[in-house]
Amino acid sequence: MEKLDKKDIQKIRMMEYFITATVKIMEDEGIQNVTIRKVADIAGYNSATIYNYFQEISHLIFFAAMTFLKKYYDALPKYIKSAANPLEKYILIWECFCKFSFDEPETYHAIFIANLGIQAEDFQDYYTIFPKDIIDIPEELMPMVLESNLSKRGRIALERSVKEGYIKAENAEEINEMATLVWTGMLTLFLNNRRNYTKEQVVRETMKYIRQIVLNVNYFDFRS
How many CA atoms lie within 13 A of 54 on its CB side? Predict the structure, then answer.
């Protein structure tokens, strides 16, 4: 990380105040109850000051939601340790992601689905403020962790399976895009109470479809 000047340090400090205040509201009242006024009151600044550092409320909620990913990242290395090959690791990465995302669907929706009107580099911006959140991430997972686009994250996770011949390169995009769409659709349905699933059921159903995608695309391709 490049050395920061005093202006950058001050900006990061101010953003941290507002992010921490937003996280408190999310934990105490829920993400749907976050308002600029509440954040400003907790942080001890006026509402107008927040807009010097965040474009809008969804931008601030996005940064605050990022703090909740740490639980997933802390669990991930151990979760995928049992994988016998890269393709199994890809599936386990999805399974771990599903378990944490369906436990906090509003938060993961804010990070990976909601329309923010901001650029992908915001993941990098967040980890400039909170570098300790990823300090224990294995180097092999870091490119995925730093990518904000969910489809690109999955494609990165699938790359080693391509290199080692577990799937064909021409199948990788199709497998990953379908897996991403399954998760996005299931999370949206679950979040909006369009399916009568428990958290355990929705994880199980989502992973059933993702496994079928991975296995069936390869199977039918190699038969052709």
Answer: 25
CA dist., res. 173 & res. 114, Å (int): 23
Task: Assess whether 85 and 172 both reside in one domain.
Answer: yes
Q: Give the CA diameter of the chain.
A: 65
Written as six digits, the tokens of 48 are: 């107008």
- Cα distance between residue 106 and residue 47, in whole Å: 24
> Based on the structure, what is the number of domains in the chain?
2
- For the record, the structure tokens of 92 come out as 């386990």
Digit-coded pLDDT (tens) for 5-16: 788 888 889 999
Q: Which among 34, 30, 41 is positioned nearest to 60, based on CA atoms?
A: 34
Q: Which two tokens stand for residue 149?
A: 């686009």
pTM of the model: 0.88
What is the spatial distance between Cα 116 and Cα 132, in angstroms, rounded to a whole number? 25
Query: Residue 19's domain is classified under what CATH number?
Result: 1.10.10.60
Q: The domain containing residue 22 runs over which residues? A: 6-65
The radius of gyration of the chain from alpha carbons, rounded to an integer in Å, stands at: 19
Round to whole Å and give the CA distance between 45 and 14. Answer: 10
**Closest among 169, 183, 151, 150 to 69, alpha carbons compared:** 150
Residue 222 has pLDDT above 70, yes or no: no
